[in-house]
């Protein structure tokens, strides 16, 4: 007996010793003595994440127990503020971990994600389904009128109370148990969906071994395809993957219609190839589980559940809004289609315009109509100049400065870092930019945080913000030259970055902004990107440094309504598809492809245009839950941003007073109050759809 006890003691001591050693060698368990406490990426290894995540979960559970078991009467400070202060280690680790799994992942990190995601979901369930914790929150909530709380504190208290009720705290124990199971399954399925899509997107959609098959492609596109082929072990060939910088120019310029069809179909069929990365079965499970979750929580559909907290409030309001935009959009798209069909017929083409022809003939039509194409513009959109243009716009509007920091560590050589300062030199925050595709990065563009801003107990924590994109990479003989779409995307994500850098609150939890409002700060920046005065600021030829000529600017202005029917139609089609998935009332056996076909036929989408995303690659709504029943938010916010930009056009493009109001009421406060109230504080009234229709060139 003594021997067994001694053996157990030795084993236990060894485990404790090993754990202490793991902690002592793990950078997440120490203060970061780096500039602005930025992540020390050179010290962080794959193997550090799992123990740090597990310890973070353990610490947060211990902190929650102290709050729950506090014998004192619940107050805002010992309950709500205490919750906001909890989980510091876990937040520190998850910020780095999930940013890297989005932008620079590998198989080891993905395995860690698969292991830890259920544990994080369980922790979330254990918080929001905890009766004792809810009772403390409810006690404070019921007394809120007597507590003399600030506006932010009241908003935060309301948010916590709402989160608990919407999470199912009022359900019976059996229903809570089932809800836990649903949340666990959804978190794993959404993770798998995104991982499958990343692998399909980074795969080669086309490889070419005959030089004559490159006919029509610009030299820069051919050069990039050669380098991509060599990177994939296909030296002497030309390769195109399913990232936009690769497949889009092929569709725009390749004279080989059969090859355009091949890469187009490869792109739209991502996740729909009946292989190991197929997403159809995952979608079916996600939808069934979301329907069941909505029913458990007492909502008619999952869309009703999600939209309750948005500006739109109900599916009926969303569908009414989408339908108002659909008719002018599809009518314009049909006119554009007819124009391109005339081009095909004039060339003697014996075929009907198809999806894989649209980009090609749109470029031809643009050149014929406006003497303009993308390749004329690219030399003026060197990435570094475009980024500086975005910085300069922000400087002129808000008086801020961007200072390059070479002493702050990055996770990849393509990443650059800037210290953002007020005009007086005081710190605003840190901005990382990461603009080029890599195998470990998911498709698309986004803004995120390595650290969010807060000011609890007067301890000001400044934000660490990152902008991520997938723009055309530099080649061995040319810098990164962006398409005009890339330019707009860079300005768009930079708008999100400004929102993240400027947002000021005491508590992190008071910053949540609904998806149909959160796009306003991003989309308004796109208006400056194409303005003639701003183009003169940043659009310079990469070889001569000459500013973009007035003649070219005029061509851009003349063509500003070009292809808008296509752009709006493909976007709105995806929005309708999203709503159809999430307004299903009963779980039924679903054929994913037939469901999608029915959804798009119902609105009358023409065959020449595909939905911007197909169900199997619709990462916004199936790779996570943030934009489910919310993809419409980009169009909703377009009404806001068009109307808001008019406030500048009515006075001056860089009007300091308008900019000050926009910063104070929108950028600094988004999420802290009702969105429409914030907008009215800025604009003095509710937004009008007229400004959007005017910008698109559509008639009511």
What tags apply to this protein structure?
two-stranded antiparallel sheet; 700 residues; Collagenase (Catalytic Domain); Glutathione S-transferase Yfyf (Class Pi), Chain A, domain 2; five-stranded mixed beta sheet; 7 strands; mainly alpha; disordered N terminus; 29 helices
Q: What can you tell me about this protein's structure?
A:
The radius of gyration is 26 Å and the shape is globular. The termini are far apart. It has helices spanning 2-24, 46-68, 76-85, 88-103, 107-128, 131-142, 151-166, 173-202, 219-231, 244-253, 257-268, 280-296, 302-307, 315-346, 355-370, 374-377, 383-398, 484-502, 515-518, 520-529, 532-538, 550-558, 564-582, 592-603, 619-622, 633-649, 656-667, 675-683, 690-696; strands at residues 204-208, 238-241, 401-404, 416-421, 427-434, 446-451, 464-468. Among the domains are: 32-128 and 130-166, Endopeptidase. Chain P, domain 1 (Glutathione S-transferase Yfyf (Class Pi), Chain A, domain 2); 205-268, no CATH class; 379-514, Collagenase (Catalytic Domain) (3-Layer(aba) Sandwich), CATH 3.40.390. A five-stranded mixed β-sheet has the order 3-4-5-7-6. Helices cover 58% and strands 5% of the residues. With 700 residues, the protein is mainly alpha-helical.
């Amino acid at each position: 007996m003594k021997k067994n006890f001694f053996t157990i003691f030795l084993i236990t001591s060894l485990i404790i010793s090993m754990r202490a050693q793991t902690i002592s060698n793990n950078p997440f368990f120490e203060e970061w003595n780096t500039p602005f406490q930025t992540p020390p990426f050179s010290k962080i290894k794959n193997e550090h994440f799992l123990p740090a995540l597990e310890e973070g979960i353990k610490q947060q559970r211990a902190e929650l127990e102290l709050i729950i078991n506090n014998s004192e009467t619940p107050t805002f400070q010992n309950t709500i503020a205490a919750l906001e202060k909890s989980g510091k280690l876990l937040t520190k680790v998850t910020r780095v971990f999930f940013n890297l799994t989005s932008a620079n992942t590998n198989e080891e990190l993905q395995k860690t994600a698969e292991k830890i995601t259920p544990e994080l979901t369980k922790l979330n369930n254990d918080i929001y389904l905890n009766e004792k914790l809810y009772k403390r929150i409810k006690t404070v909530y019921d007394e809120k009128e007597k507590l003399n709380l600030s506006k932010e504190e009241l908003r935060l208290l309301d948010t916590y109370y709402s989160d608990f009720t919407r999470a199912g705290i009022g359900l019976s124990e059996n229903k809570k148990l089932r809800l836990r199971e649903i949340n666990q399954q959804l978190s794993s399925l959404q993770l798998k969906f995104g991982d499958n899509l990343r692998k399909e997107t980074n795969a080669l959609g086309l490889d070419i071994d005959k030089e004559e098959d490159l006919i029509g492609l610009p030299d820069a596109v051919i050069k990039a395809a050669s380098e991509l082929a060599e990177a994939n072990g296909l030296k002497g060939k030309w390769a195109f993957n399913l990232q936009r910088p690769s497949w889009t120019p092929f569709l725009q310029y390749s004279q080989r219609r059969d090859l355009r069809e091949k890469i187009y179909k490869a792109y739209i069929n991502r996740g729909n190839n009946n292989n190991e990365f197929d997403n159809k079965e995952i979608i079916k499970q996600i939808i069934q589980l979301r329907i069941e979750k909505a029913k458990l929580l007492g909502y008619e559909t999952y869309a009703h559940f999600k939209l309750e907290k948005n500006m739109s409030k109900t599916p009926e309001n969303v569908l009414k809004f989408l339908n108002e935009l659909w008719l002018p959009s599809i009518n314009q798209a049909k006119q554009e289609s007819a124009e391109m069909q005339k081009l095909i017929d004039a060339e003697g083409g014996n075929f009907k315009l198809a999806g894989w022809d649209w980009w090609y003939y749109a470029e031809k039509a643009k050149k014929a109509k406006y003497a303009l194409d993308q390749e004329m513009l690219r030399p003026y959109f060197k990435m570094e100049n475009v980024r500086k243009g975005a910085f300069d716009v922000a400087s002129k509007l808000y008086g801020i400065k961007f200072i390059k920091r070479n002493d702050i560590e990055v996770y990849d050589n393509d990443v650059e870092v800037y210290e953002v300062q007020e005009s007086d030199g005081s710190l605003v925050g840190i901005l990382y930019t990461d603009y080029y595709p890599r195998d470990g990065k998911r498709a698309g563009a986004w803004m995120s945080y390595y650290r969010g801003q807060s000011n609890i107990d007067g301890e000001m924590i400044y934000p660490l913000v990152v902008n991520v994109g997938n723009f055309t990479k530099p080649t061995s003989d040319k810098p990164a030259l962006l398409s005009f779409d890339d330019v707009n995307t860079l300005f768009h994500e930079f708008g999100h970055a400004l929102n993240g850098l400027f947002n000021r609150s005491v508590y992190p939890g008071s910053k949540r902004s609904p998806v149909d409002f959160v796009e306003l700060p991003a989309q308004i920046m796109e208006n400056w990107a194409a303005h003639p005065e701003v183009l003169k600021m940043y659009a310079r030829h990469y070889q001569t440094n000459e500013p973009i000529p007035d003649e070219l600017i005029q061509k851009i202005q003349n063509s500003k309504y070009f292809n808008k029917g296509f752009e709006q139609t493909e976007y709105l089609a995806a929005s309708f598809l999203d709503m159809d998935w999430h307004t299903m009332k009963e779980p039924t056996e679903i054929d994913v492809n037939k469901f999608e076909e029915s959804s798009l036929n119902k609105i009358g989408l023409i065959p020449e245009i595909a939905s911007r995303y197909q169900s199997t690659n619709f990462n916004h709504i199936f790779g996570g839950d943030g934009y489910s029943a919310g993809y419409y938010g980009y169009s909703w916010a377009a009404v806001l941003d068009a109307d808001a930009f008019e406030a500048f056009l009515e006075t001056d493009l860089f009007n300091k007073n308008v900019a000050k109001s926009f910063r104070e009421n929108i950028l600094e406060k988004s999420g802290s109050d009702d969105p429409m109230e914030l907008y009215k504080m800025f604009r003095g009234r509710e937004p009008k759809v007229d400004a959007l229709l005017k910008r698109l060139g559509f008639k009511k």
